[in-house]
Amino acid sequence: MNALxxxxxxxxxxxxxxxxxxFDNGKKNAQLTIATHERYTNDKGEKVEQTEWHxxxxxxxTAELIEKYVVKGKEIAVEGxxxxxxxxxxxxxxxxxxxxxxxxxxxxxx
Length: 110
Description:
The chain has one helix at 60-69; strands spanning 8-14, 19-22, 28-41, 47-59, 75-88, 94-107. With 110 residues, the chain is mainly beta. The protein has a 5-stranded mixed barrel. A hairpin with a 5-residue loop joins strand 2 and strand 3 (28-41). The N and C termini lie far apart (35 Å). The relative contact order is 0.25.
């Protein structure tokens, strides 16, 4: 059952060109957003589309694949774990971030 703990799978469209960071130690990081869509009919018979945005981060070889092949609008599938972190912004206010740390990616559209 451990394989099912803190596992996230998303299929969606990339909302922005990935932001790539190269660190002094040779590590690479990719950050992007993915939009997932849900479509349903409400009680009144109206069609409703709901979009959720997800922050995604990848490291190492996965970040290199993203840098090479992923652009805004591309449909991708990712699998990873959900993480939460906080930081103090430039005004000293505490900010909270939830992101998916990707360990696998699948390119779906051309």
